[in-house]
# Entry
Amino acid sequence: MTERLYYDDWRRVQFGATVLGCTQYQENASLWAVELDQTAFYPTSGGQPNDQGWLGDAKVLDCIDLEQKVLHILDRPVSGKVEGLIDVSRRRDHMQQHTGQHILSQAFVQIADAQTCGFHLGVESSTIDINLENCSQEIVSKAEELANSIVFDNRPISVHNVEQKDLPRFNLRKQTERDGIVRLIEIADFDISPCGGTHANSTGEVGMIVIRSTERAKKLCRVEFLCGQRALNDYRQIHKSTTATASMLSTTRSAVPELVAKLQQEQKTLQKKIRELLEIALHHEANQLLESAARNSSGLRIIQGCFAEKDIEEVKLLAHILVSHPDTVALLSSSKDSFRILFARSASSNQVDCGKLLAEFCKTFGGRGGGRPDFAQGGVQNVTAVELQLALEELANRLLAQ
Ligand SMILES: [Zn+2]
# Structure
């Protein structure tokens, strides 16, 4: 049986121990599984990840809770008496997130009568699932406010080892099914709940608690939060990006959202204006094409054009303008982003089937296309702009000869 030293003080990151067993790790033959008479290494349990660190020269990569004993997974074997050293920044980080969760869970109970049903301590952020279907921004703000006031109070956190029969004396936030002695974590005049994790000695050690987001998770609400160093890191990152954005916009940080909304509106107005001007330009271009177009013996105008600078949407707009005039067939292409072909004809010119014509045209270049008799689109590959232009000219000449 391993004596667990981490129960007493999260700050205990150095200890001496005797190796009781050291064998090759079953899951990975290059690692070693070590049992000690006592340990300050916290094994993964209760939603809190394990500690890491060193046993002598050996690296402690993982720590597993086997009820009666704690298994340390090492990168090399150890024997005899060893000095244990725990990665203190990882330990502090876990302590902050874990204790912060106790505070936040009680805050949601007091603000919205919402119980915590699940906790996950992630690498970047942590989450609790609370039984609240509609978690409003107001509830979130109030819970965050209350949680931080408990932190700022720097209330003492104490541990009680209590027998099952004495549990009813305590107003526990959640019940436990654990047998034997139960470990209770009490945040003075605020929260008391059973837990086996590593906790702060007072709430001030947790540091600031921030709620980053909430989302519906089935009938629960998932609350994402950060405590202590993580909250500070997040603040620094946000500060950096908002300051950079504000500087680009020559404004203050707080004025950024309003200014961006204004810029978005201006962008929309400009896009509309560009579209209007584009239509004017395309009408002008269409008129020139219509005037100079040759007609075949039945009076059908055949307009052919290859556009390298126009995207397919512009070409489409031009085609619609062209075929709004009677007796007109437009054979157009865009090579701006890729080779796209568009055939269209006016409603009156039913002697031409654009869909059929385009399908055949694309097929000769190993491409695909088709559509209605009056409007069809397609695409081709493995062709040069010159080859495409020549093929379209040839088709136009064929239609003119009809
Ligand atoms: Zn806990």
Q: What stands out?
A: The helical segments are 88-112, 137-153, 229-248, 256-292, 312-323, 354-364, 385-400. Residues 256-292 form the longest helix (37 residues). The mean pLDDT is 94. The chain has seven helices and 21 strands.
